[in-house]
């Protein structure tokens, strides 16, 4: 079995940004993604009401150069104005051709 080393980008944000973030990561080169609802506490505190909607976690596996492009885009466009965090991890995947 061959494993291919790629990057998993994880983005946690306000749910209202979901469609916009998904469109951005697809446009920047991601071929797929997984979205889940999440909760937690961070530098902006715990959400006190449901009217804002839940938080989401978007995960995508991409080539290293695309990971850097996505992280740079998020940093430039979202970090200042929205409750968005993002990070990358190195992962080893089976059928690596599905992701690049």
Give a brief rundown of this model.
By secondary structure, this protein is of the alpha+beta class. Helices cover 24% and strands 35% of the residues.
Which keywords apply here?
alpha+beta, N-reg_PII, globular, Nitrogen regulatory protein PII, 100 residues, four-stranded antiparallel beta sheet, Alpha-Beta Plaits
What global shape is seen?
globular
Order of helices and strands: EHEEHE
Helix content: 10-25%
Cα Rg: 14 Å
Largest sheet: 4 strands, antiparallel
Estimate the strand proportion.
35-45%
**Helix tally?**
2
Topology, number of strands:
4
- What is the architecture at the second tier of CATH? 2-Layer Sandwich
CATH class category = Alpha Beta
Give the count of structural domains.
1
Pfam families: P-II
Protein name: Nitrogen regulatory protein PII
GO biological process, one term: regulation of nitrogen utilization
Organism: Armatimonas rosea
Question: Can you describe what's shown?
Answer:
The chain has helices at 18-27, 64-77, and strands spanning 3-14, 34-38, 55-62, 85-94. With 100 residues, the protein is α+β, with helices and mostly antiparallel strands. The chain has a four-stranded antiparallel β-sheet, with helices on one face.
